[in-house]
Amino acid sequence: MRVCAQVETRDRLAAVAAAEGLSLRAWLDKLAEAVRTPGERAGEAERTRQVLLELSGYDPAASDPEADALLARRMAEAA
């Protein structure tokens, strides 16, 4: 598949890749591994929400100012 981009964009990305000792293709492959799709991010958010709920009883999806304050206090104490 070919991807068309402005020359300036390609040149800048190639310079970034070269500074990291990579070809543009290798740098883009590395980037593609690190970037998450919206579906992947939603899945990670849901798994994180479930872990928080199981470990602390806190559900960040629900609006609960009291629980938010409790979590903030616990995080501050842990820091």
Automatic annotation (TrEMBL):
This is Antitoxin. The lineage of its organism: Bacteria, Bacillati, Actinomycetota, Actinomycetes, Kitasatosporales.
